[in-house]
Amino acid sequence: MLDTATVDRASTFAPTWSGVIRHLHITPRAFLPMRSMPELNLVAGKGIEGDRYMIGREEGYYSSKPEEGRQVTLFEIETLIALKRDAGIDLGPEEHRRNVTTEGAPLTHLVGKQFWLGQVLLEATRLSIPCRHIEEVTGKSIFDPLINRSGLNCKILKGGTIRVGDAVRNA
Amino acid sequence: MAGLPVRGIKTVVEAIEDGGPGIKVYTLCDPDRWELPPFKPGAHIDIYLPGGLVRTYSLCNDPADDKRYVVAVKREADGRGGSIAFHDGVKAGDTLVVSLPRGGLRIDGAHHVTFVAGGIGVTPFLSAADYLARRGGDFTLHIIARGEPPLAAMLAPHRASGHAIIHDTRVSARPTLDALIDTAPQSAMLACCGPLDMLDAFERATQGWPAERVHVERFVAPALPIDPEARPFQLVLARSQREIEVRLGQSMLDALLKAGIDIPASCCGGICGACRIDWLEGTPVHRDRVLSPAERARSLMACVAGSAEERLVVDL
Questions:
Q1: What are B215-242's pLDDT values in tens digits?
Q2: Is B285 within 8 Å of chain A by CB?
Q3: Helix or strand holding residue A121 (H, E)
Q4: How far apart are CA B5 and CA B105, in angstroms?
Q5: Fewer beta carbons within 10 angstroms: which end of chain B, N or C?
Q6: Which domain holds residue B42?
Q7: Cβ of B267 and A131 within 8 Å?
Q8: CA-CA distance, A116 to B128, in Å (whole number)?
Q9: Tell me, what's the ipTM?
Q10: Which residues in chain A are closer than 8 Å to B37, comparing Cβ atoms?
């Protein structure tokens, strides 16, 4: 069992890393293909302009189950590389159905923490979990290989425009 | 803004056009003209019609046309009601929810495809004809019809190129399927869609062909992959004193939702824990990866659990 000191130390430890935004995607409604975008406008406390989970105009597959941390979702490009390497599955950044594909950012370590996405400040609320819905949409058997590395759900503390190529860094 | 769960793709009816005798052609689009989920040549969608009917229709447009789903519906006065609900109840501008496209013809790599269609049975082959024509594929589309062929406008470019041949049984004798198949190269893929007697005749006529190069379009929903150990069972809801059937290939969660019982669910794959319910009697078959052995002694995950016995009692 982890002792309190370990947990406290880990919660304050700021690992050295720097990431970058590789891809941005949105879709206005459940089931529709994700569209690649050069930039996205993130609204604090609401979501992404034009995306299906923007609070106030939800049309996402999970919109009937409201969740504050679904304002923006992130996914590691390293997982796509691992899927190909370890399972022979080609999954593109437009297929994982998260909004932001990052490289170099340890997303699974960021739950409960704040970090910057370009000029936008996020707080990670929980790890995403895979769902059968994504298998239905993509036609690919990716549920099992995505367990524990299916992305990160975040709420937007400070809004703004993010662009492909922007840095991802600790707050 | 919590609403009802999203069950399908929201589309609007952009246009309704005449498709020939008794046939209407419906063009469905996303409300913002966003790209629609992709489909394969010969694929079909379920459409949720006014009055609660769900019907399956072939997509008639080229799969490269990624912003439209085009379906052709022939009014069948003696049918099960779907075509009448469509013709009489659906207007331009209406919203229709449809499923993800399913199925399709395996025509990639075929040296030649010979399609045989009876009347409105041409619909699954139109998207395939457009697809093959665009890619320079070799094919012949035979349409056997009495009088004016269905969907003449969609067929026109394929008739002009010599790929589509209309056999009008008012002006000439109905060709035998043997005769049509005899014109196909030995390496051809053969596909047929039409009335049941035509499909049966086609199956007889193609008995000598390799099965992987024969496709019969029967408009029957594809079978769900079924756990060989799974059995249908009665689910008894102890508190509400109801009993519902969980069919072979159906999840307990789906049966509960269809019975109007609102069970929270999310991943539908047995890991998120959202659809956990308690069971009271029987022998659940646990297939989740979230409950501990101790938790399984009283709970199950409705999205993946089955029953080893004919009856399972749950605390709902």
A1: 988 764 433 456 777 889 999 999 999 9
A2: no
A3: strand A120-127
A4: 31
A5: N
A6: 9-98
A7: yes
A8: 48
A9: 0.85
A10: 31-33, 137
Name the one residue in this structure whose structure tokens are 């789906």: B254
Q: What is the mean pLDDT of each run of 10 residues along chain B (316 residues)?
A: 70 97 96 96 90 86 97 88 91 95 88 95 96 96 94 97 96 93 93 92 91 80 57 94 92 90 82 89 91 91 94 96
Assign residue B287 a region (left: φ > 0; alpha: ψ between -120 and 50; beta: otherwise): alpha
Structurally, how many domains does chain B consist of? 3
Q: Identify residue A47 by its one-letter amino acid code.
A: G
Q: Name residues 212-271 of chain B within 8 A of A (Cβ).
A: 264, 266-269, 271
Total-model pTM: 0.82
CATH of the domain at A76: 2.40.33.20
Are B45 and B94 members of one domain? yes
Quick one: DSSP state of residue B257?
Answer: H
From the CB of residue B284, how many other CB atoms can be counted at a distance below 10 Å? 21
Domain containing A63: what range?
16-170
Enumerate residue ranges in chain A where pLDDT < 50: none
Give pLDDT tens digits for B153-211.
Answer: 999 999 999 999 999 999 999 999 999 999 999 999 999 999 889 999 999 999 989 98
In the listed set B98, B133, B152, which residue is the last one of a domain according to the structure? B98
